[in-house]
Automatic annotation (TrEMBL):
Top-rank taxon: Bacteria
Name of the protein this chain belongs to: Uncharacterized protein
Organism: Polaribacter ponticola
Amino acid sequence: MYPHYFERYKTDGVEFNMYIGQSITKEDSFDEIYLYNLRLWQLQTMCEMENIAFNERKNMDEELRVASLILVHSNPMAIKFRMDEKQFDVDGAYNIRYEIIKKRIDKANIKGTNERLTIPGKIAIVYSQDKDALEYIKYINFLQSRNQLGKIEFLELEDLQGVAGLKALRVEVIYQKDFNEKDTITFNDLIKEIEA
């Protein structure tokens, strides 16, 4: 796997950011296949986390469901490492738009309705460029062939304060009755799918 930066933190849920690109390492030259691999791995991992959370309900006093969301951002961005907080942060006015979108999309509604984008049992994938949707449809088709994902929806989102024109894919998670987190898709499976 190509070197990348992964950051996880807890708010009212669990959020993580991943940054990948040539400037993170001077050792290896960057190829987009590394980005595709990381994105497919992320979606696969989201399916696994959904299954773990779903199966853990039997051990809880109160039923708790999760709603999963992925924000796809394909444009290069400037990031800087803040030594005081020991984390990466976006840099520059244009890149701040990404942070604004990230903070607001979890409350987004589907255009023309009062229905929230994020609902239990489905993974929402928010994007602004059609090429990103086409890329993720390939990953979804692969995971559908593995019986991990089901029906897919193509949605437009209501305009948010300072953000307009976002679209989303929303795909059903197929929960496995005999889910075992050790039985996951291998790295070789991922590479075969990316190269196809």
